[in-house]
Design brief:
Bound molecules: iron/sulfur cluster
CATH class of one domain: Alpha Beta
Strand content: 5-15%
CATH topology of one domain: Alpha-Beta Plaits
Structural class: mainly beta
């Protein structure tokens, strides 16, 4: 019997501008009804002096807890941040460091 392999329906064209990216999973926290940060061991700390406001971290945060509404910069909602470290790993400016909270 022949296998059914996935077929690419259309070619992918990367967005030319950040505004063209789909909203994706990076909604502001609000779809979580309880704070979930109590088991976090490391927290991301933003160095505003290094941040270029490229918003890659905002785009990739799986919990959507990095907010862009703060005038002049980003804000991390520590009530919902689970400390996964993706934002720090992906920041090209090394503007986010993970600080140990478990000590
Ligand atoms: S990825 Fe880094 S430089 Fe870009 S907005 Fe986030 S903290 Fe700032
Ligand atoms: S550590 Fe993870 S959950 Fe917290 S702000 Fe960074 S990417 Fe989002």
């Amino acid at each position: 019997m022949a296998m059914n392999y996935p077929v690419r329906q259309r070619s992918f064209k990367p967005p030319k501008d950040l505004a063209e990216y789909p909203v994706g999973i990076a909604f502001p926290a609000g779809h979580l009804v309880e704070t979930n940060a109590s088991w976090r061991s490391h927290r991301p700390v933003l160095d505003a002096g290094k941040c270029t406001n490229c918003r890659i971290c905002w785009l990739l945060c799986p919990d959507g807890v990095i907010h862009t509404s703060k005038p002049g910069g980003l804000e991390i909602d520590y009530d919902y941040c689970k400390g996964c470290g993706i934002c720090a790993k992906e920041c090209r400016q090394k503007a986010i460091r993970m600080e140990n909270e478990a000590l």
